[in-house]
Specification:
Largest sheet: 4 strands, antiparallel
Protein name: Cell wall elongation regulator TseB-like domain-containing protein
CATH architecture of the largest domain: Roll
Pfam families: TseB
Domain Cell wall elongation regulator TseB-like: 38-80
Oligomer: single chain
CATH class of the largest domain: Alpha Beta
Shape: extended
Length: 162
């Protein structure tokens, strides 16, 4: 009797795992297809030959951000939207470490959650999402935008208290 219960429990767990994975894949398939299409577009229309990291940025319009390399190993960033593509060598702008230093200089107690390239009002930017401890509110969240070209601070969005 214990063997039947154990087999039934293992079978039920396997079925739950199988359908959980199928559900997860079904939910994410559209996003993964958008990312695959953007990478293929970047390969076809730029000198990018290897994609290392792919992110989605939603600002004025959605962009897929591809960070990778060209055929001689130089780091590149490609911003792909439905109707526009921007491509820059990573060395043509500031890097993530420089932006992180700028954020910490501006807000010393910032706990950076995410940093990624993006496009704000047609300008290539670094978006930095971070939180700061606030005595009255607990934590407050911010988005800072820095120019990709020179690292100049462009804007800060302060999110309302949760």
């Amino acid at each position: 009797m214990k063997i039947k219960i154990a087999v039934a429990a293992v079978a039920a767990a396997a079925l739950l795992l199988f359908f959980g994975v199928r559900f997860f894949n079904a939910v994410h398939e559209k996003e993964w297809q958008i990312q695959r299409n953007a990478v293929q577009t970047a390969y076809q229309k730029t000198i990018l030959t290897k994609a290392d990291k792919v992110d989605r940025f939603v600002g004025d319009k959605p962009f897929t951000i591809i960070q990778g390399e060209n055929k001689i190993g130089q780091k590149m960033i490609v911003w792909v939207a439905e109707d526009v593509i921007y491509s820059q060598m990573a060395s043509d702008g500031v890097n993530a470490e420089q932006v992180k230093a700028a954020v910490l200089a501006h807000q010393a107690d910032a706990d950076i959650v995410r940093m990624m390239p993006g496009v704000l009002n047609g300008t290539l930017v670094w978006e930095v999402f971070y939180k700061v401890k606030d005595d009255a509110a607990g934590e407050r969240y911010y988005y800072d935008y820095y120019s990709f070209k020179d690292g100049a601070m462009l804007d800060t969005y302060r999110l309302s208290i949760q």
